[in-house]
Amino acid sequence: MVTVIGFRHIAVVVRDLENMIRFYTLILGFEVKRQFNIKSEDFRKGVAIAEAEAKGAHLIVPNSSVEIELFQFETPMPNLSNIPLQANRLGYRHMALVVGNLEETYLELKKNGIEFLSEPITVKEPKEVAGFQFVYFRDPEGNIIELNQLPE
Fold this sequence. Notes:
CATH class of the largest domain: Alpha Beta
Structural class: alpha/beta
Helix content: 10-25%
């Protein structure tokens, strides 16, 4: 059995890197850890795309080790069909972020023009997760983000 010793990041392929950096930093409070360009043969081999060139950024949640990696492929252009993906589509579908007060965060984001899939939900059952609160919305490119408030 493999022993995982940590969690590094989630990567999100984006159309407009600068716009997404602005959203994640100005709206959600992430911080830019680093920005970079990748055009190496090692990168092309690793992603199994012969002509791959990308620019990217690592963003971090302040006071944590949680990172997201945003990638904008410059070549080849990504397939943009079937966007936005539905929440029940197989595969990775969303990231979840914990906030201190879900209702306040929801109202603040609504003031900033964020459209949510629903109003915040408080889970009543199953009893193992009763009191857990969540709400879904999409970033500017349609990626689903879940906000959570954990029960006390």
